[in-house]
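WARN retry 2 of 3 for item q-0093 after timeout on previous attempt; input resubmitted unchanged.
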Amino acid sequence: MKKVTLLLAAIACFCMTGAVYAQTADEIIAKHIEAIGGKDKLSKIKTLYTETSSEVMGNQSTGKTYMVDGKGFKSEMDFNGQKMIQCYTDKGGWVVNPFTGGTAPTQMSADYYNYGRSQIFTGGALYDYAAKGNKIELQGKEGNNYKLKVTTSSNAELTYYIDANTYYMNKSVGKTEMQGQIVPITINYSNFKKTDFGNVMPYTAELDFGQFAITTNVSKVEVNKDIDAGQFDQGKL
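OK item q-0093 returned
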Protein backbone atom coordinates (compact mmCIF):
# COMPACT_ATOMS: atom_id res chain seq x y z
CA MET A 1 0.00 0.00 0.00
CA LYS A 2 2.88 2.32 0.87
CA LYS A 3 4.51 1.67 -2.53
CA VAL A 4 1.23 2.43 -4.32
CA THR A 5 0.90 5.69 -2.39
CA LEU A 6 4.46 6.70 -3.31
CA LEU A 7 3.81 5.82 -6.95
CA LEU A 8 0.65 7.91 -7.07
CA ALA A 9 2.47 10.80 -5.40
CA ALA A 10 5.26 10.58 -7.98
CA ILE A 11 2.75 10.56 -10.85
CA ALA A 12 0.95 13.57 -9.35
CA CYS A 13 4.25 15.41 -8.97
CA PHE A 14 5.16 14.65 -12.60
CA CYS A 15 1.79 15.89 -13.81
CA MET A 16 2.02 19.06 -11.75
CA THR A 17 5.54 19.72 -13.04
CA GLY A 18 4.32 19.34 -16.61
CA ALA A 19 1.49 21.78 -15.94
CA VAL A 20 3.87 24.34 -14.44
CA TYR A 21 6.20 24.13 -17.43
CA ALA A 22 3.28 24.42 -19.86
CA GLN A 23 1.97 27.45 -17.99
CA THR A 24 5.44 28.98 -17.82
CA ALA A 25 5.94 28.49 -21.56
CA ASP A 26 2.66 30.30 -22.19
CA GLU A 27 3.70 33.11 -19.86
CA ILE A 28 7.01 33.50 -21.70
CA ILE A 29 5.24 33.59 -25.05
CA ALA A 30 2.71 36.12 -23.74
CA LYS A 31 5.53 38.39 -22.56
CA HIS A 32 7.32 37.94 -25.89
CA ILE A 33 4.18 38.93 -27.81
CA GLU A 34 3.71 41.95 -25.55
CA ALA A 35 7.37 42.97 -26.04
CA ILE A 36 7.09 43.01 -29.83
CA GLY A 37 3.92 45.09 -29.88
CA GLY A 38 1.12 43.22 -28.17
CA LYS A 39 -1.57 40.90 -29.46
CA ASP A 40 -3.94 43.67 -30.52
CA LYS A 41 -1.25 45.47 -32.53
CA LEU A 42 0.02 42.28 -34.20
CA SER A 43 -3.52 41.23 -35.12
CA LYS A 44 -3.78 44.37 -37.27
CA ILE A 45 -0.68 43.56 -39.35
CA LYS A 46 -2.01 42.13 -42.59
CA THR A 47 1.02 42.73 -44.80
CA LEU A 48 4.70 43.43 -44.21
CA TYR A 49 7.22 44.72 -46.74
CA THR A 50 10.95 45.18 -46.12
CA GLU A 51 14.02 46.26 -48.02
CA THR A 52 17.37 44.81 -46.97
CA SER A 53 21.08 44.74 -47.63
CA SER A 54 23.14 41.59 -47.09
CA GLU A 55 26.72 40.43 -47.00
CA VAL A 56 27.48 36.90 -48.20
CA MET A 57 31.11 35.80 -48.00
CA GLY A 58 32.29 39.34 -48.64
CA ASN A 59 29.81 40.03 -51.43
CA GLN A 60 27.08 42.65 -51.11
CA SER A 61 23.48 42.20 -52.18
CA THR A 62 20.15 43.97 -51.86
CA GLY A 63 16.80 42.38 -51.21
CA LYS A 64 13.09 42.74 -50.63
CA THR A 65 10.55 40.67 -48.73
CA TYR A 66 6.78 40.53 -49.08
CA MET A 67 4.40 38.96 -46.54
CA VAL A 68 0.61 38.65 -46.67
CA ASP A 69 -0.57 37.18 -43.38
CA GLY A 70 -1.56 33.54 -43.74
CA LYS A 71 -1.17 33.64 -47.53
CA GLY A 72 2.47 33.92 -48.47
CA PHE A 73 6.00 35.17 -47.92
CA LYS A 74 8.53 35.92 -50.65
CA SER A 75 12.12 37.07 -50.45
CA GLU A 76 14.13 38.38 -53.38
CA MET A 77 17.91 38.86 -53.23
CA ASP A 78 19.90 40.44 -56.04
CA PHE A 79 23.49 39.23 -56.45
CA ASN A 80 25.28 41.17 -59.19
CA GLY A 81 22.19 41.25 -61.38
CA GLN A 82 21.11 37.67 -60.63
CA LYS A 83 17.96 37.31 -58.57
CA MET A 84 17.47 34.53 -56.03
CA ILE A 85 13.86 34.03 -54.94
CA GLN A 86 12.31 31.98 -52.15
CA CYS A 87 8.54 31.86 -51.81
CA TYR A 88 6.37 30.16 -49.18
CA THR A 89 2.59 29.97 -49.40
CA ASP A 90 -0.13 28.28 -47.38
CA LYS A 91 -0.02 25.42 -49.88
CA GLY A 92 3.65 24.98 -50.79
CA GLY A 93 6.86 26.71 -51.75
CA TRP A 94 9.14 27.38 -54.68
CA VAL A 95 12.59 28.81 -55.37
CA VAL A 96 14.57 30.38 -58.19
CA ASN A 97 18.31 29.84 -57.77
CA PRO A 98 20.42 31.06 -60.70
CA PHE A 99 23.57 29.78 -58.99
CA THR A 100 22.49 26.19 -59.58
CA GLY A 101 21.99 26.86 -63.28
CA GLY A 102 18.25 27.42 -63.18
CA THR A 103 16.20 30.51 -63.94
CA ALA A 104 12.76 28.90 -63.72
CA PRO A 105 10.93 28.37 -60.42
CA THR A 106 11.22 24.89 -58.93
CA GLN A 107 9.26 23.38 -56.08
CA MET A 108 10.81 23.38 -52.61
CA SER A 109 11.56 20.12 -50.87
CA ALA A 110 9.19 19.25 -48.02
CA ASP A 111 11.90 19.80 -45.38
CA TYR A 112 12.83 23.21 -46.76
CA TYR A 113 9.20 24.28 -46.95
CA ASN A 114 8.32 23.04 -43.48
CA TYR A 115 11.29 24.88 -41.95
CA GLY A 116 10.35 28.28 -43.39
CA ARG A 117 6.57 28.08 -43.62
CA SER A 118 5.96 30.05 -40.39
CA GLN A 119 7.21 33.19 -42.17
CA ILE A 120 3.82 33.53 -43.86
CA PHE A 121 2.28 34.45 -40.50
CA THR A 122 2.41 37.68 -38.54
CA GLY A 123 4.40 36.95 -35.39
CA GLY A 124 5.82 33.72 -36.81
CA ALA A 125 5.31 30.36 -35.10
CA LEU A 126 4.73 31.69 -31.56
CA TYR A 127 1.94 34.20 -32.08
CA ASP A 128 -1.42 32.43 -31.66
CA TYR A 129 0.55 29.17 -31.81
CA ALA A 130 -2.18 26.78 -30.67
CA ALA A 131 -4.60 27.94 -33.37
CA LYS A 132 -1.87 27.27 -35.95
CA GLY A 133 -1.46 23.70 -34.69
CA ASN A 134 2.00 24.31 -33.24
CA LYS A 135 3.21 22.74 -30.00
CA ILE A 136 5.54 24.41 -27.51
CA GLU A 137 7.83 22.80 -24.94
CA LEU A 138 9.88 24.78 -22.43
CA GLN A 139 13.37 23.26 -22.19
CA GLY A 140 14.62 25.39 -19.33
CA LYS A 141 17.19 28.16 -19.64
CA GLU A 142 20.52 28.51 -21.38
CA GLY A 143 22.40 31.46 -19.95
CA ASN A 144 19.92 34.34 -19.85
CA ASN A 145 17.65 32.79 -22.49
CA TYR A 146 14.55 30.66 -22.18
CA LYS A 147 14.67 27.73 -24.61
CA LEU A 148 11.40 26.90 -26.33
CA LYS A 149 11.15 23.86 -28.55
CA VAL A 150 8.56 24.46 -31.25
CA THR A 151 7.03 21.62 -33.23
CA THR A 152 5.04 23.18 -36.04
CA SER A 153 1.87 21.79 -37.58
CA SER A 154 4.04 20.55 -40.46
CA ASN A 155 6.29 18.67 -37.98
CA ALA A 156 9.29 20.96 -38.34
CA GLU A 157 11.27 21.28 -35.10
CA LEU A 158 12.80 24.62 -34.11
CA THR A 159 14.38 25.93 -30.93
CA TYR A 160 13.73 29.56 -30.05
CA TYR A 161 15.78 31.50 -27.50
CA ILE A 162 13.86 34.24 -25.68
CA ASP A 163 15.83 36.82 -23.69
CA ALA A 164 14.72 36.71 -20.05
CA ASN A 165 15.03 40.50 -19.69
CA THR A 166 13.64 41.92 -22.94
CA TYR A 167 11.58 38.90 -24.04
CA TYR A 168 12.79 39.45 -27.59
CA MET A 169 13.71 36.36 -29.59
CA ASN A 170 17.45 36.63 -30.08
CA LYS A 171 18.18 33.26 -31.68
CA SER A 172 16.52 30.40 -33.53
CA VAL A 173 18.00 27.01 -34.38
CA GLY A 174 16.64 24.48 -36.85
CA LYS A 175 17.48 22.16 -39.71
CA THR A 176 16.50 22.16 -43.35
CA GLU A 177 17.34 20.36 -46.58
CA MET A 178 19.66 22.09 -49.04
CA GLN A 179 20.92 20.44 -52.21
CA GLY A 180 20.06 17.00 -50.91
CA GLN A 181 21.67 17.44 -47.48
CA ILE A 182 20.24 18.24 -44.07
CA VAL A 183 21.84 21.50 -42.94
CA PRO A 184 21.64 23.10 -39.47
CA ILE A 185 20.68 26.78 -39.50
CA THR A 186 21.28 29.20 -36.65
CA ILE A 187 19.88 32.72 -36.87
CA ASN A 188 20.96 35.41 -34.40
CA TYR A 189 18.66 38.45 -34.17
CA SER A 190 19.70 41.89 -32.94
CA ASN A 191 19.22 45.65 -33.44
CA PHE A 192 15.56 45.59 -32.35
CA LYS A 193 13.57 48.68 -33.32
CA LYS A 194 9.99 49.84 -33.25
CA THR A 195 8.47 50.43 -36.67
CA ASP A 196 6.31 53.41 -37.54
CA PHE A 197 3.30 51.11 -37.07
CA GLY A 198 4.36 50.34 -33.50
CA ASN A 199 5.52 46.72 -33.63
CA VAL A 200 9.09 45.77 -32.72
CA MET A 201 11.29 43.65 -34.98
CA PRO A 202 15.00 42.82 -35.39
CA TYR A 203 16.70 44.93 -38.03
CA THR A 204 19.76 42.65 -38.15
CA ALA A 205 19.85 38.89 -38.66
CA GLU A 206 22.96 36.74 -38.89
CA LEU A 207 22.27 33.41 -40.62
CA ASP A 208 24.84 30.66 -40.04
CA PHE A 209 24.62 27.63 -42.35
CA GLY A 210 27.79 26.03 -41.05
CA GLN A 211 29.87 26.38 -44.23
CA PHE A 212 28.83 29.97 -44.92
CA ALA A 213 27.01 32.84 -43.26
CA ILE A 214 24.80 35.74 -44.30
CA THR A 215 24.33 39.01 -42.41
CA THR A 216 21.18 40.91 -43.35
CA ASN A 217 20.22 44.43 -42.30
CA VAL A 218 16.75 45.90 -42.77
CA SER A 219 16.76 49.40 -44.25
CA LYS A 220 13.03 49.94 -44.80
CA VAL A 221 9.79 48.57 -43.32
CA GLU A 222 6.24 49.19 -44.46
CA VAL A 223 3.30 47.68 -42.58
CA ASN A 224 -0.03 47.13 -44.35
CA LYS A 225 1.33 48.22 -47.70
CA ASP A 226 -0.73 47.00 -50.66
CA ILE A 227 0.83 43.70 -51.76
CA ASP A 228 -0.48 41.60 -54.61
CA ALA A 229 -0.78 38.04 -53.27
CA GLY A 230 -0.76 36.82 -56.90
CA GLN A 231 3.02 37.17 -56.94
CA PHE A 232 3.23 34.13 -54.65
CA ASP A 233 1.97 31.89 -57.46
CA GLN A 234 4.79 29.73 -58.82
CA GLY A 235 4.10 30.72 -62.40
CA LYS A 236 4.44 34.46 -61.75
CA LEU A 237 7.77 36.23 -61.21
